[in-house]
Amino acid sequence: MSRFIRMREMDNIITIDGPGGSGKSTVSRMLAGKINSLYLDTGAMYRAVALAAKRHGIDFGDGPGLGGLCKMLDLRFDTNEDPPRLFLDNQDISMAIRGPEMDMLSSEVSAVKEVREAMVSLQRKMAKGAKLVAEGRDMGTVVFPEARYKFFLTASPETRAERRYRERVERGESVSRNTVGEALKKRDRQDETRSISPLRPASDAILIDSTRLDPWEVVEEIVTHLV
Ligand code: DC
Fold first, then answer.
1. Homologous superfamily of 2-223 in CATH?
2. Which DSSP symbol is given to 74?
3. Average of pLDDT values for 115-130?
4. Most informative mutation of 25, 70, 95, 106 for ligand 1 (most atoms within 8 A of CB)
5. Distance 107 CA to ligand 1 centre (A)
6. Whole-structure pTM over 0.85, yes or no?
7. Cβ(19) to ligand 1 under 6 A?
C-alpha cells in the first residue's frame, strides 16, 4: 500500500490511550457517538483473550499456545448496541470479561508477545476504511502511530480508584475502596513496566488531565483539537 493512501486512512483515526480509571472508555464512546465514528475498545479484546485462555486451560506463560488460541478466536463487536457488545464464538461475553479477575488476567495476557502481535494485526484489520475512535494503551504508540489525532488521558490515582470503586458498586459487587485502589495500582505497574508496548503517551499525543472534568467536558476539550 502506498504511504499516501495509508496517511489518508490515518486521517480518520483518533487514538485515546491512558491508564485504568482515566475515563477513556466513557469518553471514547461518547466522542465516537458525537462525531459519528466507530468505537474500538481494544481492552475488551485483551479481556476476551484472557477469558478464552482460561476456558481452554492455556497457561499464561505459554506464548505459542496463546498465539495459537488468538489465531482461532472468533471475536466480533456488535456496534449497534451502546456500549457495543462483544461476542466470542457467537456468545455474548460482555459481562463475563468485566470484574476483578479479568482485570488482572487481561493485564497478564496482554504482556505476551504472541498475543500482542495477533491483537495488533486484528485491530488494524478492524480499522480498515473506518472512521474510528480507538481506545487502549498502545493505540498512539504502536497500533496507529500515524493517526492524525492522539490523546492521552490521565487523572490522579485517587480519582481513578474512586471511579473504579463506583463502577464496581454500581455493578452490585461488594468491595472496599482500598482493595480496588491496590488492584488498580498493581495493574498500572504491570501495564507500564512490561517490555512490549508499555503504557505511555505517544510523543505527539495531547495530554488531558480528567481529574476535575466530567466525561462531557473531556469530550468538548478533545473536539476543540479536531479540525
Ligand atoms: O482498558 P481495559 O482495562 O479494559 O484493558 C484491560 C487490559 O488490557 C489492561 O490491563 C492492559 C491491556 N491492554 C493493552 O495492553 N493494550 C491495549 N491496547 C488495551 C488494553
1. P-loop containing nucleotide triphosphate hydrolases (3.40.50.300)
2. -
3. 95
4. 106
5. 6
6. yes
7. no
Q: Are 178 and 46 in contact (CB under 8 A)?
A: no
As beta bridge partners, residue 212 has none
Determine if ligand 1 sits within 6 Å of the CB of residue 136: yes
pLDDT digits (tens, 9 = 90+) for 164-180: 999 999 988 899 999 99
- Name the grid cell of 182: 491496590
Residue 212 and residue 23 in contact, taking contact as beta carbons nearer than 8 Å:
no
CB of 9 within 6 A of ligand 1: the answer is no
Nearest CA to ligand 1 atom 1: 43
How many Å separate Cα 57 from the centre of its chain?
24
Q: What is the mean pLDDT of residues 200-215?
A: 97
Q: Structural domain boundaries of the chain?
A: 2-223
